[in-house]
Fold:
Amino acid sequence: MSAQAAGSDAPSGLLAREEAKALADRVLRLSAADQTRVYITSEWHGNTRFADAGITTSGGTSDTEVTVTATVGRRRASATTNVLDEEALTRTVDLAGRLARLSPEDPELMPELGPQTYTAVEAFIRRTEQLDGDARAAAVGRVVEAAVETGKPAGSIFVAGYLEARARTIAVATSAGLFAYHRTTDAELSVTARTPDGTGSGWASAGSRDWGAVDAAALGRVAAQKAVASRQPQPLAPGEYTAVLEPQAVNDLVPLLAGALSARAADEGRSAFSRAGGGTRVGERVVDERVTLYSDPADRSLRGAPFDSEGVPITRTAWIEKGVLRHLSYTRFWAQKQGRQPTGAPLLGGLTLAGGTGSTEELIAGCARGVLVTHFFYIRSLDPRTVLQTGLTRDGVFLIEKGKIVRPLKNFRWNESPLLMLNRLEEIGRPEPTAAGRMMPALRIRGFNFTSLSDAV
Amino acid sequence: MGSRRDFIKTTLGGAASLAAIGRLPIDATAQTPSAPAADAAALDLAMEALDASRAAGASYADVRIGRYRTQTITARERQVSGVSDNESYGIGIRTLVDGCWGFAATSAMTRPAVQAAAREAAALSRAARTVFKRRVELAPVTPVTGTWMTPVRRDPFDISIEEKIALLLAANEAALKVKGVRFVTSGVSQRREIKTLVTSEGTNVTQTLIKVGPSFTATAVGDRDFQSYEEELAPRGDGWEYVDSLDLPGNAERWASLAAEKLVAKPVEAGQWDLILEPTNLWLTLHESIGHPTELDRAVGQEANFAGTSFIAPPEKMIGQLRYGPDFMNVQADRTQEGSLSRVAWDDEGVPADQWLIVERGLFKDYQTTREQAAWIAGLTGVKRSHGCSFAESWNAVQFQRMPNISLLPGGRDIGVDDIVADTTRGILVRHSGSWSIDHQRYNFQFSGQAFYEIRNGRIAGMLRDVAYQSNTPVFWNSMNLMGGQRSYWLGGAFDDGKGEPPQSNSVSHGCVPARFRNVTILNTGRTA
Structure:
């Protein structure tokens, strides 16, 4: 089944399949280039921010954008506009053509794709698209009420957060006869609770294609529980400790491996997956043998994109299987050069880290002594050779002793690599939804490198 | 560094006094006579939106119509890797109903669509009343009419693509001459924002803002290792003449040779070191450790869920009391500075550009504010006006408090980095910005750089690698014991500083002088297991 058949009428404000096709055809007809590609996004976005238990801003936007990529001989360039009248479309098509003619020949240029077959993905959920200002305000009310009630032991708790809903349709068309259409929705709600004495902070977040899968009141309760429990944190001397990373913390760290999965960078000796002396590490065991990392747009827990902006089909790819590096990501050019199939970028098809069955609570219960981490903040790359990152813990760090949480700890800065860390795996939990298109488990890691203390709460 | 320093001298125009740095005279009625005005049809739509907002119950409304153009060209080794041109046009309407904000935006520039967006904004204002705590009160501003444009000699959009491509390929070719250098990427981005603001109070201004941002990175590959070097080519609110002044083709070989040199540099010995930061590195540290914590919305918790709060809170315990650094430390906020990225004539609420001190003689003095925020601290600072820090990244984003240019003012002794090196017995010199990370209250930070040098007995003793410095904001700034003067002042900056939910990007510049910091923790980041 093709993606084209997956869409019925799109809701008002977004381009339906037929409308996107008509717009793409209009643009293709205007182009005098040898080859032309049209990429169309049509998006509605509604958001509500809150702080100090009140809504601070609330907004709604809608926009439709057309990117024209023109190819003349082996020269290629793009131009984008969101003005859709004949004059602006003509100007944009002409600009793309003119920029292409001015560009030097691209030795890596690949011809535009013709018709493709795509995985069927139903990622458009009506109740997400219907999350209007009133519905969002009501949800924020539930979050605030639950957090304030749960936070009472600490006094008048400060609650802040963000709720957004997006609905989007995407189309790719080429002069070689390709037309692809996909539509998707995302909802995300996050909440921070802070205690009035300024010493405790908690956070919780959930995201899904389906707003119905997000429990607003539960997030308010969890954030407030963590805030209350994290009051008066004590310092633990920086060093290497066993760490239990909650799924949201894993979600902050493990997807950074995607950047290292580029086949080209690995082949060229510029990646953690380059083999010393040449070639790549595909086929080698690179992490603990329990670990599998895969993308799969058709997986109902991911509902990823079935194609990328060039129209390349995205299908299930196991990047790492039982600890062994199986696949790297290939652009069309590099795939052709190396005799492989192009994959699209690793995150487009969603990302799941799998390998275990336990809950976060079970990973804590199995920990003799360690540090429990709610989530991370301000992560930056330190060294691409090892995928080494630095960052901080945030909104709830706790000491675990004999399988129980015994006291709150001050935040840490850490320097750690998701790749090296997955070689020091004690236990891996079951994948849980952390954001739209992401399934991440809790992990228990030996020797997590906490390097200094932070005074931040 | 020769060309860069020359450029700074030009920018500063030999200004002798601190207050004279790039000060732009503001005239609230007639700004740049040659700056484009809003087209009549767009202005009609804006007025339509104001009327519809009032009819829907708004006590205040502002309307921004923006046309944003971005062009980016990138080159990899001997080929162009990307040419793209982006245009975005639309209208954003913000309303106050019963003291609650609402915002709606659309790219459909028709009367019915604009009226519908105005009604939606008012509806969102009303929806917000159900979860409501503090009524929005706006600081007064005198309504203003005018136009303004970034002064440029050569508009980057008037430069041919051929010229831009030739420049990048010439730079890459020069870099590839260096032994061991296998990969080179260079690029140039340029932006033009034409935005019209009309408010229900009578403001009607149109501004054209122009910015350019070049980039250059070389990667050298050794037998078992690779190292990259990124030259610090600050983006600026300036014309193509700035890109020309950097002479990419003439400097690229020297820049690329640093990537190769890093392959054989000595790994740093972790521990406590005296640290000399060039302005090309210090600007980012200042941005993160002074720029962000002095945002008033962070201090009161409005950014708690994402960007974080601030250690400079609550305001009543901090203003005039927090010792940020030594008494020779002065930090100035300024939206008027020549060549800077956040230079405007008016902010996105129609407030005239301002210049004020954030830190005076080492003491924290004032925050960054918008019209909504000014009254929150007016009793503490005596400042009733907004400092003019309202900004939205596009027509489709709501304006909120964003960072103005914030700069470390030069010291009284007009010395340069060479004098600071000569005065240092054992230390590390860091050039250009590298990895950066700081906690959500802006205490604990860790920064890297692009090139590091060991200093022994007043001289550079060789190159180091894998260096990062880690500290705590108040401890760090209070350990500053020597700083450069006017002649070593340099304007760095960031094209895309993120904040808010949904995240918005802001461009901001930071002027700096080199400075020395006592006993800073140095890490070796070359971890392999």
Remarks:
- The radius of gyration of chain A is 24 Å.
- Residues 1-11 of chain A have pLDDT under 50 and may be disordered.
- Chain A touches chain B through 90 residues (CB under 8 Å).
